[in-house]
Amino acid sequence: MEEGAPVTAAGPGRRTLYLAGDSTAAQKYAPAAPETGWGMALPFFLRPALPVANHAVNGRSSKSFVDEGRLTTILGAIGPGDLLLVQFGHNDQKREDPARYTEPWTTYQAHLREYVAGARARGARPVLLTSVERRRFDEGGGALPTHGDYPAAMRDLAAEEGVALLDIQALSLALWGKLGAEETKRYFNWTASEQDNTHFNPPGAIAVARLVAAELLHRRVLAPGDVRRLDDEVPESWITWPAEERA
Asked: Which domains does the chain carry?
């Protein structure tokens, strides 16, 4: 199904939403609490019969995720009617690390094409998500972009390939700017011992997951019956951290 094509809700159990990404989206475990990936909160905004298979992993880039065989694992399970959401960029920027670094207009786009082609070859629908923004503000209180050319490179690739694009970078930047420098501390993993301007706590993960779900609906990737609670309060207490990572 191409970008902008109409969607209809599938029957119960007929689709799975797969998520490939980095630590901002990944499942967190008890030792990391209150750090929360937005993928942990996404199911709260989807109908129960549309499960989320969260394959996002801390520290991965579009390149290292492929090199470690993680995309192969997803492609071995994904099937017709499923969705593959792809969010990378944070770790693609790490020029000092050749295992993860990609150049926005060449190797980054080349790796993203592997996700797109792999999903389509199996009858699944790829969806590209620009990276959720970090918490950074200028002296005047304006929210600053931190991802360089990566969001623009993804936007261009999505247009070229006819892939649905969720511009979470732009949406989150606007949200952080609206909230302001002090209020956004309540959304990121700021604790007594840590001031983390990249990763989220439960309110932040819920806020970003709401943006993702709303864009899935707005971009007609999902039908109205697939999405719920967009205007409802989602309690922080719904977020839980398993005791330990499964092998």
From this structure: 17-237 (3.40.50.1110)
